[in-house]
Amino acid sequence: MDGLSVAASCIAVIQAADQTYKIISQFVRDCKDSKNDLAAVSQELSTLTRTLTQLKDLVHDGIDFAGSDLTSHTKRDIHEIVSSCLVVASDIEAVLSGHEGKLAAMSWATRGKRKVATSKVLLETNRRALSLAVDTITLATAKYIKQDTANILDDTTHIRGDIHDLVARIRNLEAMVADKGPEDPRKYVMMRYLNDLSSVAGSVCDVSSRPVTPESNTSENFRGCTLSPDGTKLLWRDKRYMLLDINSGEVKDVDP
Question: DSSP assignment, residue 199?
Answer without folding.
Answer: H
